[in-house]
Amino acid sequence: MRDRPVFVRAATGILVLVVVAVAASPWIAPSSPAEQDLAARLLPPGSAHWLGTDHLGRDTLSRLLDGGRFSLVIASLATLLTGVIGTGIGVLSARRRGWLDEVLTRTNDVLLALPEMVVALFLVAVLGPGFLSLVLALTVTGWTPFARLARALAYDVSARGFVESARVLGCSTTFIVFRHILPHLAGPLLGQAALRFGQFLITVGALSYLGLGVQPPQSDWGSMLAAAQPYAARAPVGILAPGLVVFTVALCVTFLGQRLARMSSTRMVLNPASSGAVADA
Amino acid sequence: MMLFLARRAATLGVTVLLASFLVFLIPYVTPGDPVRKIIRSRVAGEVIDDSVLQGLTAQLGLQDPLVVQYLRWLGRLAGGDMGLSYASRTPVVEQVVPALVVTLSLVVLTLGTAAAVSVVLGIVAALQEGRPADRVITTVTQAFIAMPEYWLAPLLVLVFALNLSLLPSAGWEGPASAVLPVTVLALRPISYFTSAVREGMLDALGAEHVVAARARGLSHFHTVRKHVIPNGLLPLTTLVAVWFAGLLGGSVIVEVVFAIPGMGRLLYDAVLNSDIPLAQGGVVVVVGLAVVLTTAADLIHGLLNPRIRGHHA
């Protein structure tokens, strides 16, 4: 039931809708996200303001559309960076083996033991809050799951017949990695990337909620939620809306990621040459 | 097994040393004069003039090479001396220890709740595989992964504390104040635990000795209780240890929302106030404990499952 195409289409549709709406926010937002109207503070949803207004009389829907840019861009950037770095390190470990593999795997273990949130707090404390510290904070520990997965999969694929054949035929390692190994890793790694994107989105919101992410006058979904919290009893939509968006986007992405991972792992399981890839993932 | 243990111990030592060195460097990499910062963390007086500063620099050995200073710092740390907090001018240890006790109780409560709920949900889902009960449990618990704590926590406060006045909205006094934070914090572990229990149970249900027990004519109930559940729950042990480590530093949001005086709150305050000694002490304790717990999880995994010892290169 969870795998019905209907659900996949719904999740994809919601994601596309959110991304397009956020990207087009300067043109489609009902009003400017920074425009204050102190006479119209904490309004409930209505015809003038579809999602009501915040404690400074700013239109919640416009702020939601505008704030999404920061959250989505940081989460995408972190996913891309960690994905590329992690895959590179994982494949390198699996191909070179020996001491390099040992060192990289131990580094991975070490980073995996550090609580993500503490590392992020630490880095933000050292570098100061902002766009770059956030991306860095997510990347420093974030590449490890990709490296684990890529290493396990690359080990399995390297043992298969076509890789050995390619080697016997005199193909270079670079050619084998890009032509034969990486294409086999694409499915599971994309699934992992989707899952990680969801988690990054939540973490970015968490840091902004704590005031360590995006700084005023800019805002994102996490900082909107934090700003609306003191007025939650009078205007519950202020905390309901941004959280619901984060939850929905993270849920859709996680769902698609799990499906992707499952689809590609069934193929791996059906193949007798692959052994521990799924368990290690 | 000895090699496995030695490898783990070495990783543990290196991790703790590496983390402690990074923490030691904080005063040097943050803006401002490192000497003044270090003196502020070691000398109780508030105002220090330049002549005193020079005397203190020599006395505290701040002109020595960085490595020497690091070893000295490490020695003091081992003796439980983490310096003075900038904000409160009291020893950092006196703040870290009570905060750690609070966070440990929060984490133990959370993981206990999560494990109990997940064992029930996971067993039901596995025994009902593919039926509506399984689908509902699997779908709902998987959705928990996507739940932002900073959304759920204010919503629960709004409903149960402000509107219904059933539970306190903040603080850490008595069982009632633990209900909401533990609920929020338990959702994500429940998600992972339930799926692990379900998978473990399904594996165990298909195992040969279970089929053999069935063939011998043992009842379904007896087979499940004696042969399936003990094996099916094995994966949970490691997972709980790993989550223990993760939650020690991962409860920041919940502690801030509910004003719980634990480690997360302490680290957050330290960062906001640029209270370097407090941040150093907190990070060292959290990372040290997390590393020890992760290693413990590996060891448990190795003890319970001899197959991985050799191959885990």
UniProtKB/TrEMBL annotation, chain A:
InterPro entries: BP-dependent_transpt_permease, MetI-like, MetI-like_sf, OppC_N. The keyword Metal-binding does not apply. Keywords: Cell membrane, Membrane, Transmembrane, Transmembrane helix, Transport. This is ABC transporter permease. It holds the Pfam family OppC_N. It comes from Kocuria dechangensis. The chain crosses the membrane at residues 7-29, 70-92, 113-146, 235-257. It comes from the Bacteria. One of its GO terms (biological process) is transmembrane transport. It is a multi-pass membrane protein. SUPFAM superfamilies: MetI-like (SSF161098). Residues 68-257 form the ABC transmembrane type-1 domain. One of its GO terms (cellular component) is plasma membrane. Signal peptide: none annotated. It is found in: Cell membrane. Belongs to the binding-protein-dependent transport system permease family.
UniProtKB/TrEMBL annotation, chain B:
Its main location: membrane. It comes from the Bacteria. GO terms for biological process: transmembrane transport. The keyword Electron transport does not apply. Residues 100-295 form the ABC transmembrane type-1 domain. GO terms for cellular component: plasma membrane. The chain crosses the membrane at residues 12-30, 99-127, 148-166, 233-258, 278-300. Pfam families: BPD_transp_1, BPD_transp_1_N. The keyword Flavoprotein does not apply. It is a multi-pass membrane protein. Keywords: Cell membrane, Membrane, Transmembrane, Transmembrane helix, Transport. It is found in: Cell membrane. Belongs to the binding-protein-dependent transport system permease family. This is ABC transporter permease.
